[in-house]
Amino acid sequence: MKILIFLLNFTLLILKLTYAQINAAQSNTEQINAEQVNAGQTNIEQINTEQINTEQINTEQINAEQANEKCIPINQLLEREPSFDCCKESGITCSNDGRVTKIDINVNFSNTDEAGNIIKDKNHYIPPGFGNYTDLTYLSIRSDDINGIIPPELGNLTNLEYLYIYGDKLVTTIPPELGKLSKLSYMYIHGKNISGNLPPELGNLSSLQEMFITRNSITGPIPSSFGNLSNLKTMVIDQNSLSGEIPPELGNLTKLERIDLTNNTLSGSIPLEFRRLSKLKNLDLDSNDLIGSIPPELGNLASLKTLDLSSNYLVDSIPPELGKLSKLEKLILSENKLTGSIPPELGKLSNLKTLNLANNNLSGSIPKKIKEMDIKLNVSNNPLINTENSSSSLSYIGIAVVCVLVLITILGLIYLKTKKKIYESGGSKSKLLLLPKSSGNKQVYNSSGSKQLYNSSGSKQQISNNSLKQ
C-alpha cells in the first residue's frame, strides 16, 4: 500500500515538473517572438526612414535640376556656367519658389579671351528659351553687343507688362507674335538695323499705354489696326522710314497725350480725325512729306502744348483757329510753303514761348501783339514779310551802326580840312624840317611833303615812292 502511494506521488511530481517545463518553454517562445517582432518593427521603421531620406534627397536634386534648367537661357546670354543659380544674378528677380519674374540686363560683353586675345565674330543673342519664363512681368535687355533676332518665342510671355529691347547690332524684324502680350503696358524697341514693317498684330495690345519704336529702319505704313490701342497715351515712332498716309483711325485713341512721328517719309494730309484727341499735349509731325493745308480743327485741341509741323510741304495760310490753343508753348511751322499773312490771333497765345515761321512764303507785317510778346520769334526767309517799324533789337543795332559810321565820317572830314590849312599856311616858301643825324646823313621834308636825304657832302637823294624801310 505504501508502495502504491509512493508511486502515485512520484507520478504527480513528474507531471508537475513536466507542466512547469512546458510553461517555461512557452514563455521563452513568446519572449523570443516578441523580440523578433520588435526587431522587425525596428528594421521596418529604419527602412522607412531611409526611404524618406532618399526621397527627400531625390526631391532636392530634382528641384535643383529644375532650377538650373530654368536658368539655362539666362546663363547662355550672360556667359555663365550652366549650373549657376541665376536668381543670385544682379538684375534677376525670382519668386520664393524659384520662378523668374523680372529680367533687367544692361551689359556690354568682352570680346577678348582670358589671355587678352580678341575673339572675332563673337555672338551674343537672346536665346529662344526666354519664351519659357511665363511668370515674367518685366523684361529689359540693353546691350550694344547683342546681335541676332528678337525671338518670336517672347510672344509666350503672357504675363509680361514691361518690354524694353535695345541693340544696334540686332538684325531682325519685329515679330508679330508680340501681339499676343495682352497684359503689356510699356514697349520700347530700338536698333538701327531693325527693319521690316510694323506688324498689324501689335494693334491687339489692348493694355498698351506707352509705345516707343524709335531710331530703327522700319519701313511701310502705320497699320490702321493701331487705332484699336484704346489705352495708348504715348505713340513715338520717330526716325524710321515709314511711308504712306497717317491712318485716320488714330483719331480713335482718345487717351493719347503724345504723338511723335518725326523724321519719316509719311505723305498725305494731316487727318481731320485728330480733332477728337482732346487730351493731346504734343503733336510732332515734322520732317515728313505731308501736303495740304493745316486743319483749322487743330484749334480744338485745348490741351496742346507743342505743335511742330515743320519741314513738310504744307500750303495755304496759317489758320487763325490756332489762336485758341491757350496752353500752347511751342508753335513751329517753318520749312513749308505757307502763304498769306500771320494771323493776329496768335497774339492771344499767352503761354507761347517759341514761334518759328521761317522759310515760308508769308506776306504782310508782323502783328503788333506778336511783336510785343516776350518770345523767341523767327520769321526769317519770308521774302514778302514787312519787318519795318519792328521793335526788335536788330533794328536798334542797325541804327547804332549807322550813327557810328556817320560820326567817323564827320571827324575824318574835319581832320583833313585842318591838315590842309596847316600846309597852306607856309605859302610857296620851302620849309625844311631837320631830323636827327644817322650815319652822317640827315632827313628833311620840304613843303610839298616829299622826303629828301642829304649826305655829308651836301648832295640830295630822292627816296620817296619806294618800298624801302625808312
From TrEMBL:
SMART domains cross-referenced by the UniProt entry: LRR_TYP
Chain spans, region Disordered: 439-470
Pfam family, one: LRR_14
Keywords, comma-separated and alphabetical: Leucine-rich repeat, Membrane, Repeat, Signal, Transmembrane, Transmembrane helix
Span of domain Disease resistance R13L4/SHOC-2-like LRR: 177-287
Signal peptide residue numbers: 1-20
Keyword rRNA-binding: no
Transmembrane segments: 394-416
Origin: domain of life: Eukaryota
InterPro entries in the record: Leu-rich_rpt (IPR001611), Leu-rich_rpt_typical-subtyp (IPR003591), LRR_dom_sf (IPR032675), LRR_R13L4/SHOC2-like (IPR055414)
Compositional bias ranges of the Polar residues kind: 441-470
PANTHER family listed in its UniProt record: SOMATIC EMBRYOGENESIS RECEPTOR KINASE 1
Name of the molecule in the record: L domain-like protein
Taxonomic source organism: Piromyces finnis
